[in-house]
Amino acid sequence: MSGDKEKGYFTEAESAEVVMGSIAATTDERLHQIMDAVIHHLHAAVKEIEPTQEEWFQAIQFLTKTGQMSDEWRQEFILLSDILGVSMLVDAINNRKQGDATETTVLGPFHVENAPELENGADTSLDRKGEPLVVHGKVRSVEGAPIEGASLDVWQCNDDGFYDVQQRGIQPEFNLRGMFHSQKDGSYWFRAAKPRPYPIPDDGPVGQLLEKLGRHPNRPAHLHYIIGADGYEEITTHIFVPDDEYIDSDAVFGVKESLLADFVKVDDPDRAEKFNVANPFWEVEFDFVLVPTAG
Amino acid sequence: MSGDKEKGYFTEAESAEVVMGSIAATTDERLHQIMDAVIHHLHAAVKEIEPTQEEWFQAIQFLTKTGQMSDEWRQEFILLSDILGVSMLVDAINNRKQGDATETTVLGPFHVENAPELENGADTSLDRKGEPLVVHGKVRSVEGAPIEGASLDVWQCNDDGFYDVQQRGIQPEFNLRGMFHSQKDGSYWFRAAKPRPYPIPDDGPVGQLLEKLGRHPNRPAHLHYIIGADGYEEITTHIFVPDDEYIDSDAVFGVKESLLADFVKVDDPDRAEKFNVANPFWEVEFDFVLVPTAG
């Protein structure tokens, strides 16, 4: 065995070092750094697990099926990243909290580019299902100044628990989506439907894994936002319904304390008339706080 | 942020612990053990790498393509496991060397079940390409006793560097494959063609990764064996041509010092006639040593 080590042949003890030796000539420094972490942790995990050949092959088959489940409208590896907490970790690393800035959370797989531009007060609920919701608040900087003209790209599932892109031909196109802009005082407002909890797509290998792990596939009710403004860092975030039954067990670990919003049930015909919604309705006020771009 | 930790919400610092908390109810102890190693090493690797969102998405796309490249005849995730040294590590863990027993190495993706049963001395080379080779030796136990009736499932690439299953309709079916059995004194022999180095399939994401890593896709010339006998542990191994140009840089890390065989060029008409091969030819003698099954 000492002969193997001397010649650079594979040995169990030096397995990661042998593999890293093979890429010593890489000129891509970043790729070398990435592979160094991948190889060392991958080999360390295999050494801890000591998989049988059969277990190794099950892992190969799981990864293969996860790739094969993916297509233009379904990304099973993103779901896997989500349910293993990796998506949230990458989000956290790239968006460390600054001051009282609004915290970020996962993008999720259901964002679409080019949502329709809407005026403040517009109703995003085109299918009119569910309980009416009024959302309002302000966009401001961490210094407290209102931000005019910030873009708020908003999207959510409908009262059946599906996004429009999951039900093409069933829901109206762009149902519960819209691009709003904050007004002079930083304020925004729109009408929507109270979001509801829903399961992530669980008819593939990721759903099978969740079941084996004793986990449910549900996400607590939330609205999605991407908020940007000239001179400020763009943020991708949600606001959550705080008393949702899944609020403490989000399948993708997206919940943060600071993103729990105050959804208030309102029974007030005058206030309903002011917002042009049916009475009773739900109202949520939430301010978004942006960080100026560096430099 | 302390609020997030108290509620079990995701935090960057406690990311792996939060995910493990979600599977505390798993009744499958082995799966829990596997996930513990996977989650801790996966999160540790992400924290070391600190991927940008773009790098994370490149990784998602790479894994997706690796699954989608796989089909009935191509297993790109096994190739990935091979070139990252994982296949050899799993082999090493499951086949720790005992005494002077023959060491094992990777199975590779080109084994087929039900190779034809052949008599000792048969020629596996059906396409008659390349230089003739005579392979002989004995199968014995670690105690030194010859093993009669051991099965030797042998396969190799042809002189163009392809296995028959990679060239269906071009090579004869079962070209350079056969199932032999050792004789009363443990001896076996067969005729074949001298193997040559060849590249693993490199027209997919794994080939692209090798190129970015500055690595070639080649394997040094070898013959594959699966050897079994009643009362002995089955072994999967190769013998290698020791002066091959890739002997110190096998793309899948399969080479071990003890598996370098002595390929001798013979120019001796009498010996050629004895083995029923054209003169000159190559001769290799290699003994296989098996370990009794436990219990």
Describe the structure.
The structure is a homodimer of 295-residue chains. Chain A is an alpha+beta fold and 295 residues long. Chain A folds into 2 domains: 2-50; 77-290, Aromatic compound dioxygenase (Protocatechuate 3,4-Dioxygenase, subunit A), CATH 2.60.130. Chain A is 28% helix and 19% strand. The first copy, chain A, has 8 helices and 11 strands. Chain A has helices at 2-7, 15-21, 29-49, 53-68, 76-83, 86-94, 205-212, 269-275; strands at 132-141, 151-155, 177-181, 187-193, 198-199, 218-219, 222-228, 235-240, 263-266, 281-285, 288-290. In chain A, strands 1, 4, 9, 10 and 11 form a 5-stranded mixed sheet that branches. In chain A, a hairpin with a 6-residue loop joins strand 7 (222-228) and strand 8. In chain A, helix 2 (15-21) runs antiparallel to helix 3. The longest helix of chain A is centred in the N-terminal third of the chain and has 21 residues, at 29-49. Chain A is elongated. Chain A starts with a helix and ends in a 5-residue tail after the last strand. The model of chain A has no long low-confidence stretch (mean pLDDT 95). Chains A and B meet through helix 1, helix 2, helix 3, helix 4 and helix 5 of A and helix 1, helix 2, helix 3, helix 4 and helix 5 of B.
How many separate domains make up the residues of chain A?
A: 2
Instruction: State the helix count of chain A.
Output: 8
Largest interface (CB within 8 Å) is between: A-B, 79 and 79 residues
Query: What proportion of the residues of chain A is helical, as a percent range?
Result: 25-40%
Largest β-sheet summary of chain A: 5 strands, mixed
| Helix and strand sequence of chain A | HHHHHHEEEEEHEEEEHEE
The separation of the N and C termini of chain A measures 56 Å
Dominant shape of chain A: elongated
Oligomer category: homodimer
Number of strands of chain A: 11
Label the structural class of chain A.
Answer: alpha+beta
The CATH topology label of the largest domain in chain A is Protocatechuate 3,4-Dioxygenase, subunit A
CATH architecture of the largest domain in chain A: Sandwich
Output the CATH class name of the largest domain in chain A. Mainly Beta
Q: What would you give as the CATH superfamily of the largest domain in chain A?
A: Aromatic compound dioxygenase
Are there runs of chain A of 5+ residues with pLDDT below 50, and where?
Answer: none
Radius of gyration of chain A: 24 Å
Q: How large a portion of the residues of chain A is in β-strands, by DSSP E?
A: 15-25%
Mean pLDDT of chain A: 95
